[in-house]
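Researcher: Quick one. two chains, 1330 residues in total.
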Amino acid sequence: MLNYFITALFWLATFILLVGLWRRAQLWRNGQAAEWKLTQLFTIPKRYFVDLHHVVAREPYIARTHVATAGGAVAAIALVAINYGLMLYSTMLNWAIVIATCIMFIGAFFVWLRRTSLITNQPPSRLSKGNWSRLPYSLLAFSLGLLLLTLPITTLSNSIAVIAALLLLAGSAELALGIGMGGPMKHAIAGLLHLAFHPRQERFNDQLSTALKPLNLQEKEFGINKPSDFNWNQLLGFDACVQCGKCEAACPAFAAGQPLNPKKLIQDLVVGLSSGTDASFAGSPYAGIPVGTHAGSPNQAIVPALIEAQTLWACTTCRACVQECPMLIEHVDAIVGMRRNLTLTQGSAPNKAPQLLENLRQTANQNGEDNLARYYWAIDLDVKTISPITPVDVLLVAGEGAFDMRYQRTLRALVKLLKAAKVDFAVMGALENDTGDTARRLGDEATFQMLAKRNIANFNTLKFKRILTADPHVLHCLKNEYPAFGGHYEVLHHSTFLAQLVANGALKLSKSTETRKLTYHDPCYLARYNNETKSPRALLKSIGLRVNEMERSGLRGRCCGGGGGAPLTDIAGKQRIPDIRIADARSIGAEVVAVACPQCTAMLEGVIERPEVLDIAELLAASLVVASSAVTGLVIESTVVAA
Amino acid sequence: MQYPHIFTPMTIGKLLLPNRIYSTAHAEVYAESGGMPGERYIKYYEEKAKGGLGMAICGGSSPVSLDVPQGAWKPVNLTTDLVIEPLAKLAEAMHKHGSKIMIQATHMGRRSAFAGDPWPHLVSPSGIREPVHRGNAKTIEIEEITRIIGDFAKAAKRVQAAGLDGIEISAAHQHLIDQFWSPRTNQRNDEYGGSLQNRMRFGLQVLQAVRDAVGADFCVGMRMCADEFYDDGLDHPTLKEIAATYSQTGLIDFISVIGSGADTHNKVTNCMPSMALPPEPFVNLAAGIKSVSSVPILHAQGIRDITQAERILAGGLVDMVGMTRAHIADPHIILKIRDGREDEIRQCVGANYCIDRQYLGQDVLCVQNAATSRESTMPHKVIKSTGLKRKVVVVGAGPAGLEAARVAAERGHEVILFEKNTTVGGQVNLAAKAPQREQMAGIIRWLDMQTKRLKVDRRLGVAADAGMILAEKPSIVVIATGGLSNTEQVPAWGVDKGLAVSAWDILTEKVALKKNVLLYDTIGTHAGFGTADFMASRGSQVEIVTPDVKVADDVGGTTFPIFYRRLYAQGMIATPNYWLDSVYPEGDKKIAVLRNEYTEVLEEREVDQVVIENGITPNTALYWTLKDHSKNHGQTDISTLFEAKPQPALAEKLAEGEFLLFRVGDCVSQHNIHGAIYDALRLCKDF
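Model:
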């Protein structure tokens, strides 16, 4: 009797699940075509157990919990499929099911425990409540019900059997019906399929995949206007979200009280793909925007009915959300996709952004300067300017920061180091155009592509072995994004290059005289976008400086607020992002914040009461000076900046 | 981009300059014997290069010919090949930092005193005496003209051989070339006189010879005046015509323009405009020259602020801005702009201490920056000590005390600064009360900002006593309590009886000013005349009595003419060569008894008020109470001090409660602002 119940329930649940999945798949199919092959399904095990687990394992508690819960569940369901689906009713297999359900039960218990206030003050605010709060109970019910019903040693009393059957029914409803209806367990199927059909397949080949995808500028509509403008596999990706809120906890805009929460953004897109309102969202809202006031459907414009433009413009493109996401969702691609529509089709980029984009179009730099002025600072340093007839080893591309007197100090220090190391280098001079990084992040793909093509054409007239830059945004653009337009170069960040020079003995530095407590702030575009966290630290170590790490550093470093055109769109929040970062530095008592990016320098120096902000190059160049004096304590001159 | 015009590079001739600020040729009075630039000279310029200056022109009035006496202002001697090697060292020092260096070359003609080695007969187009230098001269002969043209060419070759970046030929300040130009000095009737074309001939021949000597690529410029301000001299339209003609020859790559002739005392003072003149007083004249010139125009005169420089450049008035005294006050101007530390620039106030010393044949020093031209021993940038961190108490926030606090704080010590007044500045605050001397306050403003920036614990309005100082448990106490008005020296002046009052009483307005006032000045510096001017400007009738040979005898050549303009304009009476013997009352009047220094005849004046300026007596009370408590008995070891080495006492270990005691500035004996600041810097730089 019980055996037949379980068999019937299994096949009913399977049917319901398939129907539900088919309906869900119809929603994904509203998206645009993207290349896929059925064989990609075979990649799932490796991607699940290696790539995804690599992210999940950062939080051991939930990793272990998930292994037990999901592992137990998958094993139990598979065994049920064999033993009951095929009507074998083997006692041996029942024992196996008991073991699997026990494991699942223990796992589900810890899922429950995390969401209670028993061991912590409260569940972390980043976790969504709502139907996610019922999930531990569903899982406990499923595992307990199945355990009791399949336990082969005793005969259950009728009342217990009924209770167990009801528990199993409830649990199965979550797993089968829930998935099709968009319940929390949808993440299991959508998540696995997302791994297979992920829009950035190269992520799973140990390749950095941070470049934005080129936009076809011949299309009628640019970027993402409505949910159905996303590729189908992007929509699938949104559906994989488990609302764990790791993105929310990492998001600098959210922390600053700006109206952006990456988790809600993904959930809003789920609302958009499945039609409805955001009323059932049970997590942290966008600051200042009440939940329940927005709605969407696949073919309805996203902005502003579903998502307000200011939410999209608050993003710094720092990729902290992407870095944290255990489901490997690509939030930044989604945001830039929607920005492209706002900027290119609607022309509605806010605040200072339009002026900057206009400047880029008209003058190829962000503030409408004379491009010759980009390298005025280099004249007294007697720096060569490259020309088609003067080949060099290293081409220094300074970027937009070269117009700024602050960043010129970094560049002067870098030039001093290059000269000390006898590097054959030249600057690009008036041939240099802005890389288009900011334009691209602001969604102005047309201006980006124009500038990229122009720069590539200029590069092609010149002879150099590699490109050096002190600006990680320039690095990212030239190294990761120009290849799509035919520009293939060896591009090095100055920290990487200088670390090579120190390692091979070309650059000899004395121990730093800096005695203040120092920390290093990882630029997002160097660390997360280019996986370079070691060279800056190695360089600081090479001059005897100890790096006191802030709470968020390396690949998980906190953004300064300067990326993605965010300083231009300037969306108001409760505080400014650099204030938060400086607070990080102050909380460990840092007196010097070493940086490696002109944006970071500018943003962090915008905080009035703060530690001193110095680029790695400045700290290193100071160690080139050998202090000497005939008289105690008297050094006639001075520091690097006096060069 | 910040300061976009200052930081727009500039090409003059074939020379590329990184920015548009430069330092003009001035007489440094640093050259070593034989007119050779030595270590001091080179380091003085190298400091500007370290500070980011785009170009310096050194060697104001460096003579090319032997018949220019060189004793008076120690110029660089361009008459000999011996100069090449030291100049090459200078060029190397400048180029190391990316700066360019040129030198000014000239023949002074009559603009010298004959009475010095080699006792030449000075030459001038028409042998007319020069008033300022008492320059008696002969009429120059054709053979001498030919020789001097050759001398210019040879000098230019030497400059080029030394690796300098260019040469500036002076036709300004009424040197020989503009002595030919000016009808005031050229009354010849040969091919060098008469028509303007003839008067321009000598200069053109000089430039042609120089250009022939150095070739087309070497930078050659000319300095000229844009209006002599004499009725019989060159006016602006004529000088525009000269500039147009010269620039069109292709012989020169730039023209550096100044305003004002210089052969009388009252005109010399225009050339280096002091704080009494408006900012950039002659930039319009330079712009006038620019309107006719086909080469870049460089101009300096009273441009002391970087925003002023930026504005002048932005307005297109000139192509480059000279900030020479500005760089004497702070050689790191460009560096500080680049570092975003503009508010740390020590701004020239136009006190003209530098140029006034030069006119006395003394080395150029800055009233407020004691490190300038002492780069071998004194730091422009005081670096943090790597030794003991000490607690330093400074008492008195005049220039000496402020500088001591600043330097000690830069060294990284914990510094407490006591000042009994509620504002810092000491006697400089009094100096700034005088009409047209208000900018003296700028000296204090910088020190004030620096001590605040360095987080010196400033206790203003607190008259520190020994107990308060010792309670701080200091390891070093620096007394900088300044002076007290020295009116008690001659009891017969009757200050204690109220028959006479001090200049301080007047300037602080402690005593009400009366109508008919006699100011008695035994010191002869700015203080006495400044007080007189203060009173006259408020409607008093003022007679200045001094035993010196003239009123304000101890102020320099660019300052006394300013004073005399005001003295005569305001109807003050100058009575030099008289002592004030005594004052006695008669009714509500005061009778001042004066004695002539030379005849010893007594005279009397009936006035409403007698004001005494007799300098200061050191304010030593606090010193004496602390002296015996201190480990070193308040003694500064002068042999190490004068060698700019650390005080030996600093090396000794101090027991609990022990401290070292030093004194700086007027509280030792009456010095001046520079002396006070130098005292503090040289002592405290090694703390």
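Residues 518-621 of chain A form one domain.
Researcher: Thanks, that's what I needed.
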